[in-house]
Amino acid sequence: MAQKPRELTPWVSPLHNWGYQLRELRTLRGLSLRELGKITHIDHSHLGRFERAERTPDRSQAVVLDDKLGASGMLLRLWERIGDERGHVANPPAHVARSSVDLAFAVADQAASDGEGISVPCRLRDGSVVWVALDRRALLRGGVGLGAGVAIGIGSPAAADSSSAVPGLVRKARAASAYGSTPVEHLRRTRRLLIDSDNLLGPRQALRAVRDHIEVIKELRIDSSGADRRDMLELQTQYGELLAWLYQDLGDTGAASYWLDRAMQWSHTVGDADLTTYVMARKAQLAGDARDLTDVVDLAEAAQRMARPRSRLAAVARTYEAYGHALRGDAVESERAIDDVRNALDGLGSDPTPWGVWLTASYVEVHRAQGLEALGDHARAADTFAAAIQMMPDGFHRDRGVYMARQAVALAGARVPEQAATIGMHALTVAEDTGSGRITAELARLDSALIPWQREQGVAEFRAAFDATITHETRTDA
């Protein structure tokens, strides 16, 4: 019996994604590694290492593989991103000092393998803060204690083999009839509970459960038929989008992008136009979070073309488009887009779609504030954030922390450092409670913005508290 290919992990890094896409293209063409090696004159063992991200191809190899596999430049473009990745700082764990609190920000259970990386914020010797990838096994070799290991999802039996929970979850879903329910209804209720958990506690608590339930659904689809099979695939799409959101909030845009791509693929298979539109809008939102000036407006406009006219989803996409224009420095188009959404809010109550129900006046004002901050209008941005936070409904603990952190950044830009530090301290508490990478990223911006006032007491206290929660680069020379 042929050995089962090792499961690949494209969300870990651009190199892992390149290997994954190489295998996808190779299998799509019906080629073995040896057959591809003969065509490209690249040793088949090297090709296998490329796919498993154990070896980095050079540019000429990427060009040859792209050509022979008919990738139309995709493999070459993805290869160039590997070079971008090398431009980021990624220190070996032995050279990184870890505080007692920084593990709250680590990406919990980013993948099932012990050897995969986790991303954590790290302060470099020059004082700047960057996100670095650390290897799980190396963290253990480097002396991370048992308690710390559990905090980031390593060292425990559940973390070592999260798939062990799947058979039990499958049995529980199949037994739903004993409770007067069905597997589909059971999985829908579970998803709602996981969303509530994320809203209150942040992404770390829900991440593994969401991933496990995607595997549960795949297993249940094997024996499903007719409407149940379609409902299962629709649920799989929804769980995939939720998993993308959890990774997005953890600050892992690579994993978020991967799962949104999977959700987009599954949504097309389902044939639900609203669901596909929603995933497209989410891709625009992710591009905005990543400050991707190239894609954010284009993705938002694509979602609007897909949406029903004057629908809630069209307004959601227009909201993300507004922020994209602000990132590009176009204040007129940004304000026009936000005004369109505000004017449309009253007419959206009768929209039957379940997607984007969180599009409220406070949500729109938050995005208006984000746009103002991106455009450099810091004082108005801070005031708008404050008003939007006051309007937020209860239960969105983590999101309130995100918006407070962004308000603090705007206040620092408006040269109100003491108030910025005070609000930043509140946001830091939420970040520690939830492990939200989005909050941490904003607080890193705040930390840098407050440097001119670092001798003021409130500012110094915030910067010291933030500094205590992140990893530090240490000198390796004797």
Describe the structure.
By secondary structure, the chain is mainly alpha-helical. Strands 1-4-2-3 form a four-stranded mixed sheet. It is built from 23 helices and four strands. Among the domains are: 14-86, Orthogonal Bundle (434 Repressor (Amino-terminal Domain)); 161-271. It has helices spanning 14-28, 33-40, 44-51, 59-68, 74-86, 136-141, 146-151, 157-160, 166-174, 183-201, 204-222, 226-250, 253-270, 273-289, 296-306, 312-327, 331-344, 361-374, 378-391, 397-413, 417-434, 437-449, 457-467, and strands spanning 96-97, 117-123, 129-135, 471-473. Helix content is 64%, strand content 4%.
Number of beta-strand segments: 4
Number of helices: 23
Strand line-up of the largest beta sheet:
1-4-2-3
Q: What share of residues are in beta strands?
A: under 5%
Structural class: mainly alpha
Major sheet size, sense and barrel closure: 4 strands, mixed
Residue share in helix: 55-70%
Using only C-alpha atoms, the radius of gyration works out to: 23 Å
Chain-averaged pLDDT: 83
Straight-line distance between termini: 53 Å
Note the overall shape: globular
Provide the succession of SSEs: HHHHHEEEHHHHHHHHHHHHHHHHHHE
User: Poorly predicted ranges (pLDDT <50, ≥5 residues)?
Assistant: 85-117, 136-163
